Fold this protein.
Amino acid sequence: MNSNKNDSISPEIRVSIHKLSKNCVDEALFEEILTTLLLMADEHKDQGDYKLINNALKELRTSFQTFKPYRDIKKVALFGSARVVESDHNYELAKTLAKGLVENGFMIISGAGGGIMKAANCGAGADNSFGLNIKLPHEQQANSYIRDSTHLMEFKYFFTRKLVFIKESHATVLLPGGFGTIDEGFENLTLFQTGKCMPRPIVLLDHEEDDYWDRWLDLLGSLLLKNGFATTKDRLLIKRARNAEEALNHIKSFYSVFHSLRYIREKTILRLNTPLSPEFLEKLNGEFQDILLKGKIEPTGPLKEEFKNKEYPTLPRISLHFDKKSFGRLNLLIARISQG
């Protein structure tokens, strides 16, 4: 933070901020948050901006409270059109996938509306799913399977809702949909491609008789790849699935050995459910040398930053000096680890 701007806050208020921040998990960070709020109040008097900040903070606080008891359970975000009727084969597909994911230890996050969102909450059940409803001018109602659940959240802003979708989920499944579904798909791909979210399965799923995602991928190829706006490596961010079983198996496989990732200084740490053999590590080094800035992929213990936050200290790990641009190849590395 710019120290010159901090000078506009009186010493008395600084003392009050310090007292309010006492006993927080990170006192310095909480002091910075309070300081930022007070500086904003001092710099201009736009009530509209204040309302935006207030609503966004309240929405984030509610979502943190709702998801906190379930942070150790991996969750899958399902997107798709609200206009899909129950007789549509993609409705049944979403319902079947959600049911299968829950049976394999996952929870579901939907947009809480009708169509594909309703199918997801139906298949998973209210106890094993969440609904992130958006308040729209035409008053989108939460579907009957999540409407009365404590797992339902109401959002005024798309940006906070989209943040929560990404922050609280570990995989994304896109079924056929309109502007909202495509928007979420590009959001997920953009964040993954730029390293602004953790690696995750991103699955394009529709009924085996449909060609919705094939045509979408053809469009990406003819516009983005052909003009050099994306590369064939970016295509590795996406899994095309033809049925619920294929989508489920891909997500299960992704997390069968890989657990989570953390960037710490110049290193990328991959936490694993089981250790890798020296022979397999040697194979990985041969196959993925192109994404290393230097050194090798090698086993490591928890770093001090992980110990500080008690981040899975008992799990085995590997570390690498990842180039932080080849995220399609990083996705392939994780898939390769799961293949053994």
